[in-house]
Amino acid sequence: MSIQDIDLNPGVLWPSNGISEVPFRLYTDPEQYRLEQERLFKGPSWSYLCLAGEIPNPGDWVATTVGEVAVIVARAPDGAINAFVNRCAHRGNLLCLARKGSGKEITCIYHGWSYDFEGHLTGVAFERGVKRQGGMAPEFHKDEHHLQRLRVEELCGLVFGTFSDRVADLQAYLGDVVVGGIRRVLDGRKAYVIGRSTQILPNNWKLYFENVKDTYHASILHSFLTTFRINRLSMPGGINISEEGGNHFSFAKLDYAAEDADYKAAALRADTDLKLEDNSVVESVDEYGDQISVQILTIFPNMVLQQVRNTIAVRVIRPRAVDRTELDWVHLGFESDNDAMRERRLRQGNLIGAAGYISMEDGCVGGFVQRALQYNDDESGIVMMGGHEAQSQNFRASEAAIRGFWKQYRTVMGA
Amino acid sequence: MPDLALRLGINELVAAYADCIDDDRLEEWPDFFADNCHYLITDRESHEAGLRHGVIYAASKGMLVDRVVTLRRVLMFEAHRYRHVTGPTRILKIADGVAEARTSFIVARIMHDGATSLFATGRYLDRIAVTAPPFRFIERLVVLDSPKIDTLLVIPL
To answer: Hey, how many other C-beta atoms are within 10 angstroms of the C-beta on A194?
Structure first.
């Protein structure tokens, strides 16, 4: 990519220089989707790759994607985590075919070329030919070929990668406030995966990312908590947005003691129309000792770290086509959890994921928007709740974090 | 080989369960379970890894009732139905009044506009109380073949 390319192809045109009117065509235009793969996912952004704990030993690897590009993340003999494009230098064949594995090297099944876990080409089948016939041309040297490498950094057990040489180091990219939000949730306890699943979303990836940043919709679309009169004693929250705009976390506090009293009162009230038979799906403890019951954190362009009560999860947003996205859910517990906490996380797991009382609706609503825009995308959406800027705010009836997304998006896309 | 009456009773339970869901009689769905029960929707890889976290996890009949009430009264989604096709039920073991059985299934999803798709395939791994009729599920693990779920899962499988 060069500046010249941007001049030649501006992508979808915006109605102004602002970030509070967003052209609908951004969600439907195949050319825009292609430009995003080049400029955004392969550009100056840090994509979430995996958990360090998924590849604990040298030789362990996982296959993932950055945008739509297939990537391998591997633990090298020296303990470092390296990431490469999952593509043989020879003829471009996919190297790792499973989701995860372990071995001494990476070998291409097509012609047997092999690589070490630093991406060096270490072996070429029949390099010197067979019975002195054939073999690679004399000017071919293995040490001039290697797998395409990504920069890799780790924070709190989360592994990130980027194709960009010029993007800032990870922590500077995230910003201090968002780093603080990550350190709050992944607070030094040893995390492990308690479950995972993938939700297929029939919509453009940005519609989901906006939804996660949208603190305005939460109490309107998701009526579970209000219907069952849970969380009505909520205390204040806020939105923290990184300088570039794309990373954020929102949070809300809960008066846990008052909520507990409220359950008991609800159980006695004869006039309660709807009530839960089994409250254990929401019975939570103040795990972090700060009364924050919900913290939703996003990292531009593909990751969410959530704490919803005692559910901790990483969500990975994977664009698959202009109108198709996969959302990976990686549910976490901590090795220090006692039996009660393990069971609590399983029960509260009903709040989130593809069947989640709170989050299932998020999986649908993007598809509804996508359908409404089909061949009818020549206007702009309105993102003006809470103003026109993308600043941190101490209230949540706001679309500031969505505007933050578009701020960074426009910078990265050069549009 | 368990006796024929027991075998037929277990088969009837499995078939009636699928009919109940496909006929949209979801209010009756929790009654297929014992009061102390577990219901879990997971996938093959998670199940083989011994993980108990589910797309849906219920550890009491009350949690199943809450699922139905929530689906009917609270959640926003597009209307749809399922069609279950269940394979023959294999009874692996009967001991101490509990039968262990497994049944393959495929589920088609029919949206309100008629769009029909293959939504899920997998198997039921059941533990069923069979001491006396009516037989009831003590545990029903819905083990999906794929970890990928299209858009949402709101009607139970």
So the answer is: 22
**pLDDT tens, position by position, A217-276:** 877 888 887 777 665 545 688 999 999 999 999 999 887 777 767 666 666 554 457 889
β-pairing verdict for B33-43 and B136-144: parallel
Place of tokens 């994509």: A47
Which amino acid is located at A30 in the chain? P
CB contacts, 8 Å: A343 with chain B? 59
Q: Where are the domains of chain A?
A: 47-153, 185-413
Query: What would the CATH number be for the domain defined by B4-144?
Result: 3.10.450.50
Smallest CA–CA distance, residue B41 to chain A, in Å, is 10
What DSSP line would sit under A247-277, residue for residue? -EEEEEE--HHHHHHHHHHHHH-TT-SS--S
Residue A185 makes CB contacts below 8 A (sequence gap 6+) with A288, A295, A297, A305, A307, A312
Are B66 and A276 within 8 A, CB to CB?
A: yes
Q: Integer distance in angstroms from the first to the last C-alpha of chain A? A: 14
Tell which CATH architecture fits domain A185-413.
Alpha-Beta Complex (3.90)
Give the pair of three-digit tokens for residue A73.
């993340």
Task: Please give the model's pTM, rounded to 2 decimal places.
Answer: 0.94
